[in-house]
Amino acid sequence: MGEYIAIMIAAITVNNYVLTKFLGLCPFIGVSKKLDSAIGMGLAVTFVMTLASFATYLVYVFILDPLSITYLDTISFILIIASLVQLVEMVLEKFSPHLYKALGVYLPLITTNCAILGVAQLNIQLVQSDQYAFGFMKCLMNGFASGAGFTLALVLMAGLRERLEFSNIPAVFKGAPVTFIAAGLMALAFQGFDKLVTITVN
Amino acid sequence: MDKEGKEKKDSKDSKGSKKEKPKGPKPLKVKKQEYKVWDVPSLSVTSSPHVHNMDSVKKVMWTVFIALVPATLWGIFHFAFDFNIEYLSGAFQYDYKKINDSGLGHLFTSSPFLNVVVSIIACMATEAMVNTFRKQKISIMDGSAAVTGILLGMTLPPEAPLFIPIISSIFTISVVKHLFGGLGGNFLNPALAGRVFAMVAWPGIMYTQDNYLTSVADTKTGATALEFMKKYIASDPNVAGGNADPHTVYSWYDQLIGNIGGSIGEVSAILLLIGAIYLFVKKYITWEIPVVYIATVFIFTFIIGGKETYFDLSYALYHVLSGGLILGALYMATDMVTCPLTSRGQLIFGVSLGLLTVFIRVYGGYPEGVAFSILILNLFTPLIDRVTMPRIFGHRSKKGTA
Q1: Confidence band for B276, pLDDT divided at 50, 70 and 90
Q2: Is A155 within 8 Å of B383 when comparing Cβ atoms?
Q3: What digits encode the pLDDT tens for the residues A79-109?
């Protein structure tokens, strides 16, 4: 149980995908204008990250590894994630229109989110390195917690941007530039979580 | 009732209909007469606020500045002359040799003094420069840059080379403050952002890893009290001062007065408290954040305890009195711009700050967690404000909104 909590804390704070690995910046900048849409996007990413961890683990362990074609992992993961998202979208539309509406346009957008591929890759690396006895459940946990970390960063940024809307920002910095600088300052603050929990692969 | 009302209405109508066209501007005349009757010619109708207390940004900022001066002076004297006050006897202790050799002039060339002064000057100069670039009125006399400067200088180690205050000041005033709209627009506390910037950029200088405490008198090059404790808890064999218990080296009295190592302005807890009481009496800071923050740290460290013990009172006192907790809780967490607005929000803010500080201090990679936890919670401030917003009168919660 303690290991799962450690994975959770590490993925949300220490190894936050946006603020320490700088992955998934396009939705981070694009969808953080309003809090409501940020929460929607965060939920969608969390959902897909968990599913992607699930699918890529199975594909890696039962197809790529036995056939010793693990060098194809990146390209196969891209395919898996893209098709998975499309499939999930269709299934959701039929079976849970409410959730489908809530996730809205964010679901197809996520297909191209590099943070998802990053989570899949990191999971596989952790499985390979054999350091923390990374199995199926821990991969799922890592995927879910990484999504939660992404949501946290997105929600924080949305709060800040709603506040920044009313401040007297120099004209050249308005919009994306000031958001990137704010993201840099957020990353500076998140440095404080350094070494709180260490789960890294090198 | 009805009859009277009707009669009145009738009378009014009849009057109105009779005298409507020829005497249009009569109501104005009536108003003028009313003014004369009630004798309130200066009554002006404006929107709120109706009550002013004559506090301006300038006054508040310079008051905060003055409140910070005693603790800073203590830090400068303490680190420049090894100035201490002994327990019980209250006798002053200082380095006679330094004063005899170079007199008090040594003070003005000493590193702690220069660090504080340079960071104040650099902050004000950057402020003036940015004002010029942005074609604004030069706003250095409102004191906000000076307060940022003195706070930044207070958080620096006494032997820091002078490029650190200069670069940190430029970074903090131009990027953290003015890029987001100047005073009131910054979402992080500027002084702390500068401090953390320096800490991340030059960790070797900001934490003197090599020079561990050798004697109580030699506090200048010694490790900060918290670093000492962290190494002691971790049983690190590289501690040069031996495996002495930090509790015996630094008594609670030393920590309260400020006979310890640390950053320039954070060592003297008592002077910081006196300054804060002055600000509290002036109502420039509220009690919620500092009290809740310090209490949370105290209770949490009391429960987890020090080396292999739980419920360790001296360990809790050590955590409260040493390090930047008092300075951060009283002067930085209470920054009007970056702390939550409502009382409920400030309580949440304080408790989270306390928990995060202890987490970073005890389990994290840095010995000090105050700066980071205040910055992290500053990021949460807009969300806390949103959640704890007082409800508007007549508000009804809607179902189905996210």
Answers
A1: very high
A2: yes
A3: 998 888 888 888 888 887 887 887 777 777 7
From CA B243, how far away is CA B257, in angstroms rounded? 24
Cα atoms found within 13 Å of the Cα of residue B320, Cβ hemisphere only: 25
Give buried/exposed letters for A169-180 (b at 16+ CB in 10 A, else e). bbeeeeeeebbe
d(CA B142, CA B144): 6
Residues of B in contact with A173 (CB under 8 A): 179
Give per-residue pLDDT as tens, A155-174: 999 999 988 888 889 889 98
**How close A2 comes to chain B (CA, Å)?**
15
Give tens-digit pLDDT for B102-132: 667 777 888 889 999 999 999 999 999 999 9
* For chain B, domain boundaries: 57-388
- As its CATH architecture, domain B57-388 has Orthogonal Bundle (1.10)
Tokens 């991969």, located at residue: A139
Q: At what angle do helices B111-133 and B144-154 cross, to 10 degrees?
A: 150
d(CA A155, CA A80): 28
Which residue, among A155, A179, A190, has the nearest Cα to B387 in the 3D structure?
A155
Which residue in B185, B372, B386 is closest to A192 by CB distance? B372
Report d(CA A11, CA A147) in Å as an integer.
Answer: 8
Listed by number, the residues of chain B in 327-366 with a beta carbon closer than 8 Å to a beta carbon of chain A are 356, 359-360, 363-366
* DSSP-derived 3-state class of residue A183: helix
Per-residue pLDDT reduced to its tens digit, A24-61: 888 888 888 888 888 888 888 898 899 999 999 999 98
Which residue in the block uniquely carries the two structure tokens 């005497």? B23
For the entire predicted model, the pTM comes to 0.84
CA angle (B249 as vertex; B247, B254 as ends), nearest 5: 85
Q: Rounded to whole angstroms, how far apart are CA atoms B177 and B183?
A: 7
